[in-house]
Design goal:
Keywords: Coiled coil. The protein is mainly α. Helices cover 76% and strands 0% of the residues. It has a domain of 42 residues.
Length: 89
């Protein structure tokens, strides 16, 4: 089985070449769920494999204003940690 990112090969085909395909809404739903799981995966990587977490962030930020995005991600991480602490208390 080939490795894939958020999209399957079929998802890519439909999104790139078939704008009227009835599966587009289903693909959108699946991609949203995969993004949520990606966020969870990133939290695990932050704890267990920080170097891989950093690599993932860098790959996601290619073509953007990397420093600004990293600042926002750091802010989000701090907020998540604060929420986790509040939940523990």
């Amino acid at each position: 089985m080939k490795d894939r990112g958020i999209l399957t090969e079929r998802d890519r085909e439909i999104l790139q070449h078939d704008p009227t395909n009835d599966r587009r809404p289903v693909i959108r739903s699946h991609v949203r769920k995969r993004i949520e799981r990606l966020e969870q995966d990133l939290e695990i990587l932050d704890e267990e494999e920080p170097e891989l977490a950093d690599q993932l962030r860098e790959q996601l930020c290619i073509g953007t204003q990397h420093a600004a995005v990293m600042d926002v991600l750091d802010d989000i991480q701090r907020e998540l940690e604060a929420v986790h602490e509040d939940v523990k208390d």
